Amino acid sequence: MTEEAYEAIARLGTAPLWRYFGNLFNAEPRSRAVPYLWRYPELRPYLLHFADVLSLEEAERRVLMLVNPGLPDPPATTTTLYAGIQVILPGETAQAHRHSAGAFRFIIEGRGAYTTVNGERVHMHPGDLLLTPGWHWHDHAHEGDGPMLWLDGLDFPLVNALEAGFFELFGERTQKAEVPDDISSRQFIHGRLTPAWDPRPGPNSPIGNYPWTETARAFDAIAEDATGSDADGVVLEYTNPWNGGPVMPTIGCRIARLRPGFRGVVRRQTPSTIYHVVRGSGASRVDDQLLEWSEKDVFAVPGWARYQHVNSSTSQDAVLFSYTDAPAITALGLYREEVA
Amino acid sequence: MTEEAYEAIARLGTAPLWRYFGNLFNAEPRSRAVPYLWRYPELRPYLLHFADVLSLEEAERRVLMLVNPGLPDPPATTTTLYAGIQVILPGETAQAHRHSAGAFRFIIEGRGAYTTVNGERVHMHPGDLLLTPGWHWHDHAHEGDGPMLWLDGLDFPLVNALEAGFFELFGERTQKAEVPDDISSRQFIHGRLTPAWDPRPGPNSPIGNYPWTETARAFDAIAEDATGSDADGVVLEYTNPWNGGPVMPTIGCRIARLRPGFRGVVRRQTPSTIYHVVRGSGASRVDDQLLEWSEKDVFAVPGWARYQHVNSSTSQDAVLFSYTDAPAITALGLYREEVA
Amino acid sequence: MTEEAYEAIARLGTAPLWRYFGNLFNAEPRSRAVPYLWRYPELRPYLLHFADVLSLEEAERRVLMLVNPGLPDPPATTTTLYAGIQVILPGETAQAHRHSAGAFRFIIEGRGAYTTVNGERVHMHPGDLLLTPGWHWHDHAHEGDGPMLWLDGLDFPLVNALEAGFFELFGERTQKAEVPDDISSRQFIHGRLTPAWDPRPGPNSPIGNYPWTETARAFDAIAEDATGSDADGVVLEYTNPWNGGPVMPTIGCRIARLRPGFRGVVRRQTPSTIYHVVRGSGASRVDDQLLEWSEKDVFAVPGWARYQHVNSSTSQDAVLFSYTDAPAITALGLYREEVA
Amino acid sequence: MTEEAYEAIARLGTAPLWRYFGNLFNAEPRSRAVPYLWRYPELRPYLLHFADVLSLEEAERRVLMLVNPGLPDPPATTTTLYAGIQVILPGETAQAHRHSAGAFRFIIEGRGAYTTVNGERVHMHPGDLLLTPGWHWHDHAHEGDGPMLWLDGLDFPLVNALEAGFFELFGERTQKAEVPDDISSRQFIHGRLTPAWDPRPGPNSPIGNYPWTETARAFDAIAEDATGSDADGVVLEYTNPWNGGPVMPTIGCRIARLRPGFRGVVRRQTPSTIYHVVRGSGASRVDDQLLEWSEKDVFAVPGWARYQHVNSSTSQDAVLFSYTDAPAITALGLYREEVA
Predict the structure, then answer these.
(1) Among A44, C58, C246, D47, which residue carries the largest CB count within 10 Å?
(2) CATH number of domain containing D332
(3) This model's pTM is above 0.95
(4) C312: containing domain
């Protein structure tokens, strides 16, 4: 009767765990994502091409998604995170909307654009990190010259995997400015000083922009005096002023300086990470792949993949911006790391 | 050139967001999971059949997975959670192992079995909730008469979706008892008293067993004096003594009494929930499905599905055990609910 | 000019730190409080006498304050805590009021009285711990036979030292019952189960009564199977269900069983502690004092005083209820302990 | 017998609560501290005089304590806080020690001195806020020209009231530099960026110096664009990077800009506050006292005293540094405020 029993239990909406056990419980994680590098110089011409032929009215957002070859459908850059390169032209606006997914932009090139986040206009400059946390209204506008390009980071692969995503269009194309421009940054970015009137602690950072000028000052101030991390160099975390933690509950953002000749130790961790090369060139071995990166490139390190960063130059710094799902993985009790 | 451009960008590992936008950002969640009911009387004969024909040496665990028809591969009961019915016979043992996934058992029938969790033997009785949090060694043994059946709840769909799962076999078939039997329960379950020597606060409850005897006393003590929830009746959360929160960082467990004739309001929430009927019979409308349940059945309510519980009896209580991913969804800032 | 300078600076409202330094900064704390024991059999007749001659209309509360000889003015039992013995007679009521100071009662003898706390009537039985956290309305009434006596514990020495105390009389002599009697205890005390409707997490426990019946069950369940503390025996902390911490932000309450023949190690800690002997007899050496205690006695252990508990009996348990300012001292970063 | 009873209970170490009730429970706090102003120009000559006649070998620290006329013994500035003005001359060193009390210095005038805190040399400039949290080794040295004067703030009145204070001399007169000078400030002060290697979250800020240069940049950046507090102006809290909270668990530090002509609303709160005038002049009505302050003055606002700040100038800003015991009062559940 056993074969019949297998058929019968299938009809009852069940399956025998003992035939699936090995697939469901692996000795260690094997990410479907693969180590991968996207070269900015290769992508940029196509971004400009589509900027030319596709209006922002047609494309809600004009973005090339960086699709991990291991994660084509639904498209994602790592298991939980997404990266895209967005371009906007002078005079354009991108429709205001909001979504459960948390997002940020890290500005690559251009000048004169701004994002309006819940009524605050936040201006962009290369190297700035702009936040649009989950369910915050945001639209983009470009009042400068030349194309504006940035890296978009979102957690929608995670939010969609959890089937917890909402989306809503704003009633008008763009929001009106309701507070002074860039006020959140100006109020929160200096000297670890926090406005003490009307405190509104929350899981998301209230800071619209972590400007590159301050990040540069941080590296200048630290100079050669930090020990830093053996694996990640002089690595700084962007923090939420309300609790000192990561900028959003699902995404942590970091900026790292690899000194000339830096050769990191081999490390791996359960969270996945996406890197953007702010400056310099080097190589990262990720499991069995060697990713040789240069300025403005983007690359993905899957969770539990071994990585080792090297700054190829013996005279120039390399600077890597990165973001990870470590806050989510940690909150769920799943963080683990290993240093070789 | 545009078509060529689309081909070229695909070769570069990118895709145009504007062609995917609607699929990636939905107005609200649409779970692939469907509302579904598993009737215990239909499953029980097959469990006993496989207990008869399949040894525990062959099957690491002898469990019928309750596979949601919308989530066949990988198999899951809701998007993030798993339910199975496990059977073990007198004299059997189930191999000691541990995994990143958090787990619990809710005992359905039988007497005389125990689980050893990190060296503590925890004995099972119908209605008991036993915890084996992530990365805790656990094995099962049955020293009583007759088959022992229980509901297994795990978060491996979540852990596997996050690609953060580890698994390890214990060096021997079973663990030795290293502390007095059932000590954790005896130390933590009474009068909200917590042992004050050697405190070890952590994200998981240290309690091996939340015994039914105490749960029954809780309902007796509350009697008709609680207002309860309009949607969920007199619903109590099993808590972690160290922080008052849910028993594990990814899974919350609850027990609810629906008074005779109870008819809940319609509610929905982003977390998904799996119910097990401890006592009584009734019906739950879940979106457009009517799930008519009786004692020992299991049913699934997907995230953001509207549900309404009814106790069909006008003289008998219905008691529903349930578990949900609400702790995870909340920690990630994605909790949302709506009451009609 | 120096002597003139000293006079001049005094007139300007200043003083030379260098003439005070040694008094302000000591090598270690030297409490003004002394180790002290109050024998219940000596106090009881006077409590009954005053119950006889003094009405509750005359005395807002009829309490003998246990005044530490080292802390006469303002009167206190330890530096931050107060203990008193209160008596109330059948038919009496004590005026409803509230104060910033947190309070509890630990019931010593009698039956039939209750406290109404923010509209909930909480009934008293020997061994029960009843809470009236800061700024909660409370009045007492006695509907039984014979006198009712209990230990009052408050933090007003701390609150008054911080000059942060408020007090208010209720508009009427007693509050009306607004919820079912003893509902908080019935909802929160069993099986670590917490009502999941209308959660109201806060720094104070919502439990009106931690009944002795449950405390006794805890000790019975643990039996001889706990290791316990070398200094304090099998010591259990009453906890706040919302966060697993102490019952109030300023006062922690504990109950300890010293096994027959228990002889603790010598320990000291910055918090101060007041003990009440629930059962048995023994002795505690506190610095150079030997406090020989019997059932119902109260004794004080000042902060940073060395103490060592001994259960003199080789056949009977001793049970000590205690309370301390450890939650406050710890929150302020001032906790320190030392075991000899 | 009643009079005898009163005598007898006194001999037993007790007192009748009913004869003390009104003194122990007041309708609202009445601080023994009084509103008071210390004028810097009056104090400065005496500080220089004592610098002249008293060596730092004789005086562990050369400080004029600002003693509140209501709190002469033990001397304190408010109920829980202390303020002093310290002077150190070129070439001097002040002995390394540590104490449980938390401390900071706010630099008033001079240049060329530094404090060594747990092995880090922290250099001082006017307007800088330097921390020496509880139990951190610290010594001072002056390598510049001219006298160096600063405001010392400590919580020893609180720590001593709680009888929880320890003190220890360092084995040598001064500590050696064990890390690069000013490294903590350089690593933590810019752009809300936190070093991500070797995180050591704790209740005290790891920042040795919150430099005036950054504070000035904050005010410049905010300019006229902040709403600010009706009572306290554009008031910013110095924060602990690890948790976003106050710099120490007992002391919160703030800096406020009162715009020209600012006239605050009347407010009171249970914490007490000490102000130091960094710039400008104005007046604060505190209960029935009018404190007319100018640059470098210090004044005390007792807990629950009504205060109203006015910037007398219609063209110049006033800038007030302040510190309070609000973190302690809040942690103990005793915070309360009232705005007229």
Answers:
(1) C246
(2) 2.60.120.10
(3) yes
(4) 2-339
